[in-house]
Every structure is written in C-alpha cells, then in structure tokens.
Amino acid sequence: MKRSPSTEPLLALSGVTKAFGAVVALRDGTLALHPGSIHALVGENGAGKSTIVKIIAGLYRRDGGDIRLAGSPVDFTSTAEAKAAGIAVIYQEPTLFPDLSVTENIFMGRQPRGRFGRIDRTRMRIETEALFARLGLRMDPERTADGLSIADQQMIEIAKAISLDAQILIMDEPTAALSGIEVDRLFDVARALRDEGRALVFISHRFDEVFALCDTITVMRDGSYISTRAITETDPDSVVAEMVGREITELFPKLETTIGDPLLEVTSLTSPGIFSDISFTVRAGEIVGLAGLVGAGRSEVARAIFGVDDYQSGEVRLTGTRIRKSAPTAAMRAGLALVPEDRRKQGLVLDESVARNTAAVILDSIARLGLVTARAEQRAARPWAEQLEVKTTALSTLAGTLSGGNQQKVVLGKWLATNPRVLIIDEPTRGIDVGTKSEVHRLLSTLASQGMAVLMISSELPEVLGMADRVVVMREGRITATIDRAEATPENVMRAATQTPSTQTEQAA
C-alpha cells in the first residue's frame, strides 16, 4: 500500500552551486526528496541534473548552498560517505567490471566474509539469486559481465543498488536501453521501494514514463531550479515549455521527400544464433525504421552490415556494389556510416577532445603532407558542433567530460562529417533531452530530403512512427513485418514485435 509522502524531506538541497573553472555547471540546485515518494528530475542536457546527482553521490564537492540529510547538514567528500549515508545511484551508463562475474560486480568492495575471513561466495550467490528473483531477471550469477547487453548491464546496476538497501535511490535514465517488459518490471520494483518508505529520484527524457511512475516533478534549466509540482498538477507540454524556455511545436518534423533508387540492399543476411534471412532495402531519400524489442537482433544486423561483426551468408550492396563483409573501412569508403548504440564504448575515445573525436574518421581528408593539426581538427569539427548544439566551452574539451546527450551529438557529428550516402543510426536520441530530440529528428529528415538513405534503429515507438517512411520489424533475429508509413500503428508494430515469426504475416513493403 502506498504511503503518503512525509512532510519532512529526507534529503534537501537549497541554492547549491558548482563551477568548473570559468564554467558554471550549477547556479541554483534546489531539490527536496521525501520518504515514500518518487521524484522526477527533468531538464535539457546541460541543465545541471548530472551535477546535482554527482554532488549528492559524493563525486563532486559543492561550492555553495546547503545540503541536509534528515534535517542535519551534510557535505559528502567521497562516494563511500554517500553510500554509508544510505544513498545509491544508478548511472545512465553501466560501470561494470567486464572480467568479473555478475555476482562479484554486485558485491564489489563489500563481499561477505565467512570463517577465517574468507569471502563467502555461497552467500553471495544466494543473495544474488534472491535479487534476480525480485527483479524477474533470468541470468547465471556466475557468468562474467563481459558481453552483456546494455539492458542486462543496467539491470545488474539496479540489483546492485537494491542490495545496498539504500533509503535514497537515484536512477539516471535507467530505462534507456530496456524493453517494455523490463521497464514494467523496473517500475514495479520502484513502486515497491517507494511503498517501503524510500525516496527515489527518476531522471528521464521519456515523459510517458515520468507521468506514469512519479509523484512529484522538478524542472531545471541552464543550471538553475525552475519549479517543483505534484505530477497531477502539470502536463508534458507545460514541463517542456519550462525545460526549454520555449514550446516544442513539432517533435517529429518529417519532411516530404521524393524516394529514389535503392542505395542499401541487404539480402538473406544470416548469422546463426543471432539473426537469420534478413532482407530489406533503403532507398535514397527514405528513412527506414528498424523496430523490435531489446534482444531482437537489430543492433547486431546493423553491425554486420557495416562490417564490425561477421556473418555467415547473404550479402550487402551499396549503390549496386557488393560490400566485402567484416570490412568497416571498405563500407566507409563506399559511403556507409554507423552511429552505434553504445556511444561510450563504440563511438568515442573519452580521453580525447571533441574536435579529435569528430575528425577521427576523416583524417585523410584534412591532413596536409601527412600531418593533422589541432587547428584542422577544430575546423572540421566546428560546423557539426554548432549545428548539433554541442554544449561545451571549447572543442578541446575531453569527450568524457560531456553529458551523455552531448556525447551522442559528438558521435553523430563524427559520422556525418564523412558525408555518407547511407547513414545507419542506432538509438539516435537515447539519453537526449526533448529539445535536442526535435533538432536531431529535423536533421535526419533534412538529410533524407537531400537524398541520403537512413536506417534508424529505435526502441521508442513514437520516434519510429513519427520519422520512418517504412518500418521493418524484427523478433528473435528475424524480420516479421515490413509496414508502410501510412499503415504503421503502435498496435500492428507491437504485434509484429511480439508474435513468433512463423505466425506473423509479412505486410507489403
């Protein structure tokens, strides 16, 4: 039974500030978390949400303002202090140790001890199995974290946080890579924790989830507190207006285009145990949405097309010419680009600058006498940084210091700098705020109107329906339907994504 939120905040921030040199990341961090409540924290990338979270978690020290825990002033100087105070954070990007087992990751730094001080591995396994049962997660506790999907990694992070029995649980974009069923399971767990009297923070750009789960919502903009309201006293349009300081009138600005000849042709592509008999085309001026639940094989198909992953049989053709498999360089030279799902591991060199990351795949075109200067890198990167509105003080800023949404923009700019004929983009707006989503959608639509072929993989059904000229649906490694834009509805796309391939009738391409 849901408890009424306490009138006394468990954690309260008032006027908290934080600057990094001349850059002010947080001007007015104000937030009150009550026991028995799920509190949404929303704002565009760069609004200050991540800075607040890192201050609460003990990663950053505040420069000014007041923080109180159960009414007493606190100033965490380390993550260990914050954890000891009952605060757990699930970050947007998983931080597992790939060579350790799932169980070892969950209990890292706090392994239970048995006789003679030895680690009690049996107890660890039993407790991990209990956590998995609570989350409805089917996974071998002894398997290594290496190779887990982002969705599975995220669920392990959630299990780790729950195992801490924290009184304050902060979830930063926890559903970004989860399927609908996994989101429902997470929400059930979140509500159960709330009903036990814990305070939860939910950070998300998905307003349907915010309004379905949360009790209270705080809006931030440009590092400052804007408002806090009960979720029943506001609506998505009002929240968006406060977030961006303007109204987003068209989230899916789809331009009418003339569809041309096939540019990308995939025929009978098969990788046993991963995907089978994948065939589709993407034409000039066309956006094809590749839809399906997490685990359907969409990203694996994209990686195989680009040559990152091998496949057993089938072929990929670009403008009629067969592309050699397992050869990304050949695919790039032919005019193919891939913006990957996991930007941190597959899309960026985090310890390099924004400029160097953006220019990384076009070095041959900007080199002079075999040398590439920092000025040349910045000259190549600047137009894309400006067009995509990458929020950074300088193009020399390290990519790893940017927010998740801005990292996504850098990856997108890097591949668009190659001037591809075919763009494959996997989860184009994952972790990106609502204002920037509209800009990314407008950019994709503009690129298609200029004759580019776009293959867009997205777990957000509104995005697929709003942007795609055709929807190719996958389930368990097979295409179950190809649906024209005019006929595509949430119902028939989800039906194709959830029924077995053998019983699903393919619709007209």
Automatic annotation (TrEMBL):
GO MF term (any one): ATP binding
InterPro entries: AAA+_ATPase, ABC_carbohydrate_import_ATPase, ABC_transporter-like_ATP-bd, ABC_transporter-like_CS, P-loop_NTPase
Keywords from the named record: ATP-binding, Cell membrane, Membrane, Nucleotide-binding, Repeat, Sugar transport, Translocase, Transport
SMART domains: AAA (SM00382)
SUPFAM superfamilies per record: P-loop containing nucleoside triphosphate hydrolases
Biased composition (Polar residues): 497-509
Region (Disordered): 490-509
The ABC transporter domain, residue ranges: 11-247, 259-501
Protein name, as recorded: Sugar ABC transporter ATP-binding protein
Organism from which the protein derives: Leucobacter chromiireducens subsp. chromiireducens
